[in-house]
Amino acid sequence: MDATLLEVTERIAERSRAERAAYLERVRQAKSEGPQRRTLSCGNLAHGAAACAIDEKHDLLADVKPNLAIVSAYNDILSAHQPLGEYPALLKAAAAEGGAVAQFAGGVPAMCDGVTQGRTGMELSLFSRDVIAMSTAVALSHDLFDGVLALGVCDKIVPGLLIGMLAFGHLPSILVPAGPMPSGLSNREKSRIRQLHAEGKVGREKLLEAEAQSYHSAGTCTFYGTANSNQMLMELMGLHMPGAAFVNPGTELRTALTAAAGKRVAELAAAGDGFGIGEIVDERALVNGIVAMLATGGSTNHTIHLVAIARAAGITLTWDDFADLSRAVPLLARVYPNGAADVNQFERAGGTSFLVAQLLRAGLMHADVRTVARGGIAAYARKPFLHDDSLVWGPPPARSLDPDVLRSVDDPFDAEGGLRLVSGNLGRAICKVSAVKREHRRVRAPVAVFDDQDAVLECFARGELDRDVVVVLRFQGPRANGMPELHKLSPALGVLQDRGHEVALVTDGRMSGASGKVPTALHVSPEAIASGALNRLRDGDLVTLDADRGVLEVERTEDELARRRPAAPPDRGVHGMGRELFGTLRGAVSSPEEGASSFAGGGGV
């Protein structure tokens, strides 16, 4: 085992010892009480079985078969979730074959950040994770279930489902994905047209045509943003059926993997003493997830989501853990925005099975972990395929089938994972450099300070940013406005960089996995509205962002900053698009470094 991996894992376990022990005791207590249908009153149980088919009703009332809960984030707006509409019937049939009953227990909300980017509705996005967790708990609160099948793919949905499932950590559970859409217009060409539109060189019609060619069918968007990072993490944390992450929707293999998930949960539930999801998600599994994120250049959103997931399991992760692991984990994949390829090309190059085999060979994954599959994490180093209409798993390719996309540990794209923790008198922040050329990783320039992303774009359109500049966009943190993602800025900032300027972005907001070639300090903590130093910056201050040295500094003394009057947050109002309903969450949310959670003051569930 890699020494850094062991050291980080041990310190996570040590700092989490008391809270993790308390969590596992709750899990053990819930497990010892057994299936709760046995304790329900006759009226309670009759309600829960009333709408079942005759055979299922008999099995539930007689308590002769396990009952599985299906919790789904299906809707038609998220292309990644549209295929989930057909899953409940498939999973019910698979559960029946496995000797269990399955009931659709509840739906959870699932908003599409691709639709709400740059819009007021985006201010609900991060908070939707906690709403999804609570909705999952509501679905499972009927106390009728012996196992869980959770259907979801994108952004906040998978972390929300997992946090909710960890509140029922005694139940055997599997996350069931839908897979990426087939490749359309290349992500690099899409990015090029976006930049041309930002410069006014192509119109809306051409831009819309390109976007529609990119996002063209059911399935996850093909770039390596938070949605596909979710799938990578869930797979390498052992919460998927092996190889399930990147198989396209509507294929026979996809159907077989979905059915296999239903049968596997039925098997675990029938065992009675089968381990629950709370026992799988331990410090070793979480470190495996971080390694997967770093080795593939995954979404920076997981420096927030994994912290919140860990806390739900009684474990405390810090940004220092991410940064130290990043120094030890090589970059083995280049998938847009870290390269030209999409996730389908990654899968064809060898996919997750090749990646797991390489990481295990290098001692960069904990092999001694529990997973939903038999055989532990080694089962995920095998690739699924159909043989005579049966689902089987075989070895991955001995070498990458496309070294421009996926490489071995002997020939990485970079010796490090590309995630940096930067800090200084402006606070602490996350910087993803896997897509940033080395010559652009240090920027020292005057700042232009904004409180609204539309104001940045208006200033760009007037030519006022056509210079060396550090764009500071503040009051974008979770307490200020829900911490929206700021992808809308990427084309304009990319244009400035292409013109030869030194340019960087510093913000207490988010940029997700779509952060690309412009160096960006994200999630700056403390956020501006919480007395962070960003609220004392003024136009023209010299700021240095040096990702390689871990520096985020303004060239002002502490006394100078302290004498300045803090900027007041903009008066955006709290009404419209349902924002008035989320005031309690804005008031309770913790910092991004603590998982941006509204549960128990941000201290977990």
Walk me through the structure.
- This protein is of the alpha/beta class.
- The protein has 23 helices and 14 strands.
- Strand 9, helix 19 and strand 10 form a beta-alpha-beta unit.
- The C terminus is likely disordered.
Short characterization:
The protein is α/β, with parallel strands linked by helices and 605 residues long. 38% of the residues lie in helices and 13% in strands.
- Approximate helicity band: 25-40%
Which regions are unreliable across 5 or more consecutive residues at pLDDT < 50?
A: 601-605
Strand % is 5-15%
Tally of DSSP β-strands: 14
Task: Please tell me what the overall shape is.
Answer: globular
Overall pLDDT metric: 93
Placed side by side, the strands forming the largest sheet appear as 7-8-12-11-10-9-13-14
Descriptors:
605 residues; alpha/beta; Glucose Oxidase, domain 1; 2 domains; eight-stranded mixed beta sheet; four-stranded parallel beta sheet; 14 strands; 38% helix; globular; disordered C terminus
List the helices and strands and how they pair.
Layout: H1 3-15, H2 17-32, H3 42-49, H4 54-62, E1 67-72, H5 87-97, E2 101-107, H6 113-116, H7 125-140, E3 147-151, H8 157-166, E4 173-176, H9 187-198, H10 204-214, H11 226-236, H12 252-270, H13 277-280, H14 283-296, H15 302-312, H16 319-328, H17 343-349, H18 351-361, E5 383-387, E6 390-394, E7 419-424, E8 427-432, E9 442-450, H19 453-461, E10 469-473, H20 478-481, H21 490-498, E11 503-507, E12 520-525, E13 542-546, E14 551-554, H22 558-563, H23 583-588
Parallel strand pairs: 1-2, 1-3, 3-4, 9-10, 10-11, 11-12
Antiparallel strand pairs: 5-6, 7-8, 8-12, 9-13, 13-14
Helix pairs in contact: 1-16, 5-12, 7-8, 8-15, 9-10, 9-21, 11-14
